[in-house]
Write a structure and sequence with these properties.
alpha/beta, 3 domains, five-stranded parallel β-sheet, 5 strands
Amino acid sequence: MASQLSELLWAEKYRPRSLDEIVNQEEVVRRLKKFVEERNMPHLLFVGPPGTGKTTAAHALAHDLFGENYMQYMLELNASDERGIDTIRTKVKEFARSRTPPNVPFKIVLLDEADNMTADAQQALRRLMEMYTATTRFILIANYPSKIIEPIQSRCAVFRFTPLKKEDVIARLKWICEQEGCSYTEEGLETIYEVSEGDMRRAINILQAAAAIGRVTPETVYKVVGLAHPQEVREMIKLALDGRFTEARNKLRQLMINYGLSGTDVIKQIHREIFSSELKLPEDVRVMIADYAGEIQFRLVEGADDEIQLNAFLAWLALLGRKLRGVTR
């Protein structure tokens, strides 16, 4: 690939710079553009899953308000690193109390991952939001709004971001491939979307990693993200249900060794494939398998042995398959 940037910087390189470039968040963009037109806005709280454009929207808003040099009038802090009360009392307070040029209506303090801030820091922040409203606006970004204290939520206009649509993610990935001269297949880009689950940042990083190997295909995508190909997982499930336990167990060991998967990785993929249209199973059987998969996943998280638990799961599938065959005779 032409770009030699790190994955994080590469994702940053293709981030939208203006509100007009943001897709799939039409209602959010429409409301933010109103603030740009009026050159005024309240404190903002952006909430939603990772990689859906929250930080991008904040930068795009500042860019549209202040122009190319917008970073002169914005203080950006990542609350997961600087989440204590001292940061609020020093860096944020000093920036908020400084005067703004006559042509700049207010400065912006951007607190990314604000849901990681301590309770004391949030209490100190709510006071600053009141004191410096005339000169400073705060934009808080959080994945989990319930971790933001109520007094801060009540002081902010809340904007909810939703996961990106499949067509929008794939269209952006195609555009990046054209810019970088990457070779790809439609199936490869669709696989990236399925793996990233609507997280655009993760999708771009997976694209770069896959393109570094060669052509972007489903095989290269699964290889770089450390997941087994779904077809192989489905084959293992079918072997177990057909009563061929030893073959299913050998397939499991092969998957774990070849792809370097942990037990939780395997059970998550099994859970995903249970509901796949490729696996022809009655609805009640899907329910039973999903229920037992959840129990196995809990055991693994609690520290049980990966191989023993997954072998138990395959044995249970073999017994279930035998029971179903006995019912259908």
